[in-house]
Amino acid sequence: MKLPSGGRWYYEVKLDGYRALVMKKGRVVTVFSRRGNKLNAQFPRIAAAFGFLPEDTILDGEIVAIDDKGMPSFAALQTSRTRAQYSYFYSFDVLVYRGRDLRKLPLFERRAILENHALADLHEPVRLSSTLDAAPERIVKIVRDQGLEGVIAKLMASTYESGDRSGSWVKFRTNNGQELVIGGYKPGTNGFDYLLAGYYEGKNLIFIAKIKNGFVPALRVEITKLFEGLETTVCPFANLPEPKNARRGEALTAEVMKKCKWLKPKLVAQIEFTEWTKGNHLRHSKFVGLRGDKRPHEVIRESDSGANVQSFE
């Protein structure tokens, strides 16, 4: 699948961070995750930077950590020191401006209000997510060469459709990444040997991966603490147990499942991998970080081609 082309589309770099809303009600600024959690304490530098924002205004955007090479780093967002000192808010949409609901306006009108009015006096760490003026094939090549996550194409005439996958925004991923829901683990040193993860097909959570790599001992301990209150005796995966020949290495057979612990599917992880196998598994998967900004039921399989039609409103 390719990015859509033609003059009806905006193109932006897909930044590897946390989706967030910034709301200024009166003089009070609140930063929210997509799940409605307040993020002011985690990102005080960002929350304090919106003194310039007009009152009764809501912005949509991405919180991004920039590493020492000037590149977005999702892993860097996992540490409190980086979050506090080296994070930025890239705004790409405005939902409300000075009390006026803009969600039914076409994107090109919202974008004009964002650039010329809402962000007229912006300063660091607040940035405007720039649009890219080139052919889609050229944009994809540049983004891939730079090692960035991907490209977002947005219909200029699209309205803001909260929570729906409308096809008005098209994500094209240029690296091999996948969000997965954690549904269990095999106990081991420092908490676990590996995590059990999958994605949703409709209402069913489909097991696809044992995540063994990407952890240091301290991170294993930190993640294990998050399991408290999520323990359950019920396996959340609809396609378990596996037959013995289901995968390379140890399959998750009924016998192996007896060694595992199950969790309510509440935690979402960002995973990198080398490729999908024909058996619908991830090869050489690696844990990157936890995504507090994603709802578990939003996690679906992304396209093999790297492109995934998905609304982010």
Question: Brief overview, please?
Answer:
Helices cover 15% and strands 35% of the residues. With 313 residues, it is an alpha+beta fold. Residues 304-313 have low confidence and may be disordered.
How would you sum up this structure, described in words?
The strands form 4 sheets. Strands 2, 3, 4, 5, 6 and 7 form a 6-stranded mixed β-sheet that branches. Strands 10, 11, 12, 13, 14 and 17 form a 6-stranded antiparallel β-sheet that branches. A 4-stranded antiparallel β-sheet has the order 1-8-9-18, with helices on one face. By secondary structure, the chain is α+β, with helices and mostly antiparallel strands. A hairpin with a 2-residue loop joins strand 2 (18-25) and strand 3 (28-33). The chain has 6 helices and 18 strands. The chain has 2 domains: 9-173, 2-Layer Sandwich (D-amino Acid Aminotransferase, Chain A, domain 1); 177-309, Beta Barrel (OB fold (Dihydrolipoamide Acetyltransferase, E2P)), CATH 2.40.50.140. Helices cover 15% and strands 35% of the residues. The protein is globular, with a radius of gyration of 20 Å. It has helices at residues 44-48, 80-85, 107-118, 136-145, 217-225, 254-257, and strands at residues 9-14, 18-25, 28-33, 57-65, 87-97, 100-101, 126-128, 150-155, 169-173, 177-186, 194-201, 204-211, 231-232, 261-272, 275-276, 282-283, 286-290, 307-309.
| Tally of DSSP helical segments | 6
Radius of gyration: 20 Å
CATH fold-level topology of the largest domain: D-amino Acid Aminotransferase, Chain A, domain 1
* Model regions low in confidence, pLDDT < 50 over at least 5 residues: 304-313
Overall pLDDT, averaged? 90
CATH architectural name of the largest domain: 2-Layer Sandwich
By secondary-structure content and strand pairing, the structural class works out as: alpha+beta
CATH superfamily annotation of the largest domain: DNA ligase/mRNA capping enzyme
Measured as a percent range, the helix fraction is 10-25%
The SSE order reads EEEHEHEEHEHEEEEEHEHEEEEE
Largest sheet: 6 strands, mixed
Q: Report the count of strand segments.
A: 18
User: What is the CATH top level name of the largest domain?
Assistant: Alpha Beta
Number of domains: 2
User: Roughly how many Å apart are the termini?
Assistant: 22 Å
Q: Tell the overall outline.
A: globular
Beta content: 25-35%
